[in-house]
Amino acid sequence: MIRVVLVDDQSLFRAGIRMLVASQPDLEVVGEAGDGQEALEVVRASRPDVVLMDIRMPVMDGLTATAEILSRPAPPRIVMLTTFDLDEAAARAIRQGASGFLLKDADPEFLLAAIRTVHAGSSVIAASATRTLFEHFAKAPKPVPARFSDLTDREKEIFALAARGLSNAEIAGREYLSEATVKTHISRILTKLALRDRVQLVVFAFEHGLA
Hints:
The protein is built from ten helices and six strands; from the N terminus they run βαβαβαβαβαβααααα. The protein is of the alpha/beta class and 211 residues long.
């Protein structure tokens, strides 16, 4: 079972998501919170796999709560919930290590798929906001960190393709490599650049003018 915690200050919204999640045989809601401060305690007590975190809440906002939760050992995956196509706070949360963000009016099947996707180790971003989000990161490129030079030439090639959004299968076909080899390269790239996942890789590329 994938253990889910819901964090949102609107109880009616939480109730709807709870019913949706509970309808799935592989998902269960193990906790709820109405603000970020409460979320810290609920996550500590329930040890979820995935947290759906609203951004704007009283007492403590979702961004602050996300940063705190992700600073703990073995944190859950966190998906931010927002009502805007591009939310500056959602962009900041991704920089901090959140696994993506969804619009609150997302299709129910997409939300369920997103929970399973982040639990499997990938990331999700509201489709309508993806291009705008990355263009946002690219507005004022930062200097390329020294650690980028630690990548081998081959890893830099794989990095560039991944930064363009190509999947492991697409990179493998383009570079005449096995998917397992590409996966190994991606893993090494993420480790060397201290990035959590492919979404952070793409953000890193846009932020530093590498995409």
